[in-house]
Design goal:
Shape: globular
Strand content: under 5%
Number of helices: 14
Radius of gyration: 22 Å
Low-confidence stretches: none
Length: about 230
């Protein structure tokens, strides 16, 4: 798995740093076809899946910025697969998946996007999955959610009036609907949940049984968890 992960990371570096012409040819190469990307995304090892999502995010960034015609990378994604990855036991995999979800959500609502691409992204339900990740057990994943959603909230504030007068009423409705969802997000609670003190208190409130917090007759008598720690 280390070889597969290392080779994939090399591709990430190439896609991220090569000139535009080479990147375009690389993205359209058969080695990065839908089938090949699927093999990486469904690998049994977390190291490989981490690298696969790094690669997919780098490809997505390049393809979106340069409006590349090749959408093999987008075809490698399916809602059910993303849904399963959002519950992956490795938080680093979930974190990278969340970054990709955020990029695709921004693309869908705030960038120039063709109707065919928008339909493919809409079928992935990326905005709903991103909002679900706000409740992830890892504070690192929630941090990515918080940063990306705050950025999109700022885009909403700037874009609302323009989208009300947009040529496409459907696009305007989609953007406004998503911005309304963002309006219901409790950013203050999310930010507080990232503090270490909050995590300790949350663990005590939710995971420690009250019986264990009751001091025994004798100190260090087994059920005194405060003495144990």
């Amino acid at each position: 798995e280390y070889v597969r992960a290392a080779a994939t990371h090399v591709l990430v570096l190439v896609v991220s740093s090569a000139d535009a012409g080479f990147r375009a040819s690389l993205i359209g190469h058969s080695g990065l076809s839908r089938v090949r990307l699927l093999e990486l995304l469904t690998d049994s090892e977390a190291f490989v899946k981490r690298a696969a999502f790094d690669l997919l995010d780098a490809i997505a960034k390049t393809a979106i910025e340069q409006n590349e015609e090749s959408r093999e990378w987008l075809g490698s994604l399916e809602y059910q697969r993303l849904y399963q990855v959002c519950d992956d036991p490795d938080f680093e995999v979930r974190l990278r998946c969340t970054r990709l979800l955020a990029r695709l959500t921004r693309w869908k609502h705030f960038c120039d996007i063709s109707e065919s691409d928008k339909q493919m992204v809409a079928e992935l339900q990326v905005d709903s999955l991103l909002l679900d990740m706000c409740n992830d057990s890892s504070r690192y994943v929630r941090q990515v959610c918080l940063e990306s959603l705050r950025e999109m909230q700022m885009l909403c504030n700037r874009a609302s009036l323009e989208d009300l007068e947009a040529p496409s009423k459907k696009r305007a409705t989609d953007v406004i609907g998503f911005c309304e969802k963002l309006g219901s997000v409790d950013f203050g609670r999310m930010e507080r949940s990232l503090s270490t003190e909050h995590l300790y208190q949350e663990a005590v409130d939710k995971q420690v049984e009250k019986e264990l917090m009751t001091e025994a007759d004798d100190a260090n008598a087994g059920n005194n968890i405060l003495e144990c720690y």
